[in-house]
Amino acid sequence: MGETPRPGRKVMQMSDDVMAEIHRDYLFNLVLKGERDDGRAFDEFRDISIETGVAGMAEGSALVTLGDTQILVGVKIQPGEPFPDTPDVGVIITNTELIPMASPEYEAGPPREGAIEIARVVDRGIRESKAIDLEKLCMVKGEKVWIIFIDIHVLNNGGNIIDAASIGSIAALLSTTLPAERYGLGEDSPLPVRDIPVAVTAIEFGGELLLDPSLEEGKLAGTVYTVITNSDGSISGMQKSGAEPLTIDQAMRVVDMAGTAAAKIREKFLEV
Amino acid sequence: MERNIVIPGDVVSDNVKMSGSGTYVHGDEVRASVYGLLNIGERYISVIPLAGKYIPHASDRVIGIITEVVYSNWIVDINSPYEGLLHISQYPRRIDSENMSRYLKVGDSILTMVASVDAGMKVELTLREQELRVLSNGRIVTINPTKMPRVIGRSGSMIRLLKSEIGCNMFVGQNGRIWINGCDDCVDLAIQTIRYIEDNAHRPGLTERVQAFLKAKEKTRYGKVHESRNDEE
Amino acid sequence: MSEKPEHFIVDGKRLDGRSVDELRPIKIKLSPLDRADGSCYLEWGRNKIMAAVYGPRELHPRHRQNLTKAVVQYRYNMAAFSVDDRIRPGHSRRSIEISKVGRDAFEYVVFTKFFPKTAVDIFIEVLQADAGTRTAGINAASLALADAGIPMRGLVSACAVGKVDGEIVLDLMKEEDNFGEADVPIAMTAGGKITHLQMDGNLTRDEFYEALKLAKIGCDKVYKLQRQALIERYSKEYAENGGDATTRPEGDADE
Fold first, then answer.
1. Nearest beta carbon to residue A245 from set C97, C193, C204
2. DSSP single-letter state for residue B27
3. Distance, in angstroms, between C57 CA and closest chain B CA?
4. ipTM score assigned to the predicted complex
5. What CATH number should be reported for the domain whose range is A50-270?
6. What is the separation of C-alpha A223 from the centre of its chain, rounded to a whole number of angstroms?
7. Interface residue of A235, A249, A257 to substitute, partner C, most C CBs within 10 Å
8. Closest chain C residue to B46, measured at CA
9. Which of A7, B156, C74, C131 has a CA that sits 20 to 30 A from residue B176's CA?
10. Is residue C44 part of a domain?
11. Whole-angstrom distance, CA of residue B12 vs CA of residue B59
């Protein structure tokens, strides 16, 4: 398997959009044989590494690599006003920047739909899993709460940004300190994190479901389906995108694969 | 009659060889791809859409309006998502590229024909065919192009009826534009009749309906003449 | 925002009297807009949605054209006055995301290959919002596309399923949406292929499977109403135009 040539790599370096038909056919035929270009099993993730505390000015941060993908997540926290309709809980604001450094495809400017979608799906997982005890972040009801800014900075797009961003966000939150002293609001304390939601993304290609799509595989995908699961195996968020449909059976298979893969990632990298 | 209106996805046949326009093959079934009237022919089953845009095909006769003059081409609006190109060499006679606007300027109307359409939907037009020309008089009405087959009728029967009953000259472009020339009253009546056909395109017995419509109009016309005479007295 | 009710389901009935697998009432009006190539007005419970389709039409700027197919564009927008507290007009992050997945929901069904270089534009305006606007928008868009004569594999039908009081229920109303345990908006083709799926809240695997099955039932119900609206539109016209609704068209149009 390790001997497999990779004729597509140079092409992909030039432009993320262009892929020769013959290369597409090559990848398709590999899948039919039960193989992937980089030798992984269909339900196998690329190598993951997580380094926390890399951004010293942030209250929490994590540099995540997932295969070729590199993402830096920074968490800043400051006191502020709660939303009027939720006066007694803290606030989470998640943002994704697909900066031009990360891919020849990205341009400077305000976030476009792709970046917004990533941020909103990651945000959904953290919010809906109730991973952060937002009630503990209320200082004065209706007046003063802690506001948590999660900023996802994509440094290199090697595919499957969404899972790397999800892993990076929860890793950064786990390393975050509430900066109470700086604002004269008591002693610093760790951010109250009580669950570890992990996003796992699958694509459908050649009739098969592949986890953690590489950049190339992502380009081939008709369907991209993300499932976010919690420590107890329950589901907190989902997002299907892409032009091709999904059957109920496929949706359930991804849910099962995602639960297993997330548990492995959590065990290896994210246990508190 | 309800079984005759179909919606996208409806199964219309289990013989895939019968798949005609407005249908597609899914597995071993023919399904409707557009919302419209089911038309069961001898060899094909098709669905006549009730709405939609004109998509040009080679040898379609269409009515165009010049929108731009560039290089050696006139750019022509043909009531379609795709614009037409009329190259200087397709003008009926040799002209100098410096003087293109003298012969055809922005806003001019032409009876033209689609010479070719390539895979990239580049639509080339020509004026070098019989009947094709620049229009300098008459009026143009636009109807939904999907209703055009009804205005034309079976092998041109409806259009012949209109021409003979109303007594005016007409050119029916496949792109939904119809050019009409004749006396003012004739043109007005022709336009009313075309609108009537458009509104009733999905209904049965259209030819009889149009005949009845024209007969009724004839009476009111005659009646008006009569009234005005009375006024004079 | 109102207070969270103590119970969502009492004696098998929900707050508005529905059973767990019952949709709110849906009303459909086709072609309400004259300028658009196709349009649909849809009421679903207290949601009021207008959908318009333009196209296929020339796509500008040119560099966005696709040489092999039409580009589907979807814009979901909430009117500033559609909710209790006025919302700032224009795009929000929420509306951009809903627009993106809304487009994805239709890419599979529209035969885009027939119209290279063009755009098929779908516009959704939420005039009054009461939970489930994205699924209501998809249903209205599906009908507006048919009304515009756009070739499609079939209609897309959408509904939300969710969880309240530990039970899986169909078509969340506002209180259930705000205070419920999960919300799963789904769109499917008549054949049960999922073209839109999002989820937030908390569900076990088995609950999610139950939700998918209930969503299929809901989408089937919506499909029947959509189909009926399209079929009845012309039979009604028949009746109005002389009452010969029983006559069959002779199909004498020249092809």
1. C193
2. T
3. 4
4. 0.89
5. 3.30.230.70
6. 17
7. A235
8. C255
9. C74
10. yes
11. 30
Q: Domain of C102: which CATH number?
A: 3.30.230.70
Q: How far is CA A23 from CA A8, A94, C216, in A?
A: 6, 37, 37
C250 belongs to a structural domain: no
- Whose CA is closest to A45, among A266, A272, A271? A266
Nearest CA among B89, B93, B127, B95 for reference residue B111: B127
| The pairing of beta strand B84-87 with beta strand B123-126 | parallel
CB contact under 8 A, B49 and C56: no
Whole-number Å distance between alpha carbons of B229 and B223 = 10
pLDDT band at B224 (very low <50, low <70, confident <90, very high): low
How many CB atoms within 10 Å of residue A39?
A: 12
What pLDDT is stored for residue B97 in this prediction? 86
- Asked if pLDDT for residue C35 goes beyond 90, the answer is no
**What CATH number is given to the structural domain containing B103?**
2.40.50.140
Q: How many Å lie between the alpha carbon of C159 and the closest alpha carbon of chain B?
A: 19
B186-204: b (≥16 Cβ within 10 Å) or e? bbbbbbebbebbbebbbbb
Q: List the beta strands (DSSP E) in chain B.
A: 5-6, 11-13, 23-26, 29-32, 36-40, 45-49, 61-70, 73-77, 84-87, 109-117, 123-126, 133-135, 139-142, 169-172, 177-181
Partners of residue C241 in chain B, C-beta under 8 Å: 200, 203
Of A128, A230, A241, the CB nearest to C200: A128
Give the per-residue pLDDT at C2: 67
Q: Low-confidence residues of chain A, pLDDT below 50?
A: 1-16
B83 and C CB contact within 8 Å:
yes
